Predict the 3D structure of the following.
Amino acid sequence: MKFPQLGPGFLVTAAFIGPGTVITASLAGANFGYALLWALLFSVIATMVLQEMAARLGIVTQQGLGENIRTSLTHPVIRSIAIILVVSAIVIGNAAYQGGNISGASLGLSGLFDIEQGAKLWPILIGFVAFAILWTGSYQLIEKSLITLVGLMSLAFLATFALSSPDITALFSGLLLPSIPDGSTLTVVALIGTTVVPYNLFLHSSIAREKWSSTSQLPAARKDLYFSISLGGLISMAILSTAATAFFGHQISINSVADIAPSLEPIFGQYSKLFMAIGLFAAGISSAVTAPLAASLALSGVLELNKQLNSKSFKSIWMSILLIGVLVAASGQRPVSIIWFAQVANGLLLPVVTLFLLWLMNSKKLGDFRNSKIQNLFGLLILFVTLLLSGRSLMSAFGLI
């Protein structure tokens, strides 16, 4: 078998396999066993469907998702409302996600070094590192190194899953028979939010058009996407399953690296805490660079700003997102709570971005590359499920159910 060359699809996977996935999937497994594996399966399929649309849009039109939204809306009032909605989704979603990324990396450093006041020092240090990488424009090389570390952690989860003797019957039941146990609605939304990340749709459409300039290259883009997202899905499911095997039924709480490290003990023994700490730090830093970059690409497209990495407008956007992330992470809130909120926020904002994407994918300017009936059906199903879950979460939050 010939593996596809790593491309934008792997960057999407590297972005969603971050601290949010590790923490959220671990919490899901610890609290509900294998019961919510179906939510991850749905999330992976939804990611493939939506990211394929985003990549196709970018390659066919040679414009990112943000640019397409702006240029396709001609009525000034409707365009203004749409831009406000998209900008709000990007700013809120990315700021929350950035807070989770920096908090996750802080958890990793806290597991490596026991320094008093570290909880406030780590976010500032991580923010400075991310700032330096983005400012110099040399983030590609460092990101590749960090992705390697995240990859090692991911392989550890897959290997641990294989050695942990999971309950195969319960595993397939949770994977194929959807259920929402009492108190698990927000967890389902968080699992979707940590996998189908709205800003990845903007990131993928922009990067895909840079890598592939012809519609004849769509098969290569799809091959890259399906391979990368499938790998990411397997990793997420392995994290949830190892947590279910290690923690379910033991009434534990997850607040630090030490709490989730036991899931790696079948492979790394006494060094499991060290390995988990390094992995979380790597995942956090990698995503802390990607999120502000995606926000800048998305907002530059929507607001018709300069998309050059060194332009003042581009820098001002990623600096704002990075600053908000540092402030959120250094606010004194529990890192796990911040990471959790980020995933729920993404899950709630996903329907807004999905609606715009589906509308654009049926535009006449795409010609023969418009969505087919099957693609629209899958897209509408994803939109319906995310709206249903988001609505249920909001009703639960206000005590209506």
Notes: The mean pLDDT is 80. The first helix runs from residue 8 to 16. Residues 8-397 form a domain with the Amino acid/polyamine transporter I fold (CATH 1.20.1740.10).
